[in-house]
Amino acid sequence: MKHRAIVVHVDGRAVEVAEGATVAAAIERAAAGVPAIYRRAVGGRGRAALCGMGVCHECRVTIDGHAHRLACLTRCAPGMVIATEGP
Ligand code: FES
């Protein structure tokens, strides 16, 4: 079964993902092979998705203006705007 491609925006960059992909997948795709930073800890260190199943909350990002959404549990929607605290 072939999935339809949709476009989301990660930190202002258009990223094409398969319909049904998670926001975490879109962020990783936008990072293009370098470690992605999803958010910053209080001390400023970069944090990224860890468990991939909604337990650790390390993958919190802002989605369509709503802060602290879990990237690993949220499915992409066409035109979605995703903001990380990465570089
Ligand atoms: S990666 Fe752990 S809650 Fe999303």
Present the secondary structure layout.
Layout lengths: L4 E6 L2 E6 L4 H9 L7 E2 L5 E2 L12 E4 L2 E5 L10 E3 L4
Parallel strand pairs: 1-7
Antiparallel strand pairs: 1-2, 3-4, 5-6, 5-7
The structure holds FE2/S2 (inorganic) cluster.
Account of the 3D structure:
The protein has 87 residues and is mostly beta strands. It has a single domain, classed as Roll (Ubiquitin-like (UB roll)). Helices cover 10% and strands 32% of the residues. It has one helix and seven strands. A five-stranded mixed beta sheet has the order 2-1-7-5-6, covered by helices on one side. A two-stranded antiparallel ribbon has the order 3-4. The longest helix is centred in the first third of the chain and has 9 residues.
Provide a compact summary of the structure.
A hairpin with a 2-residue loop joins β5 and β6.
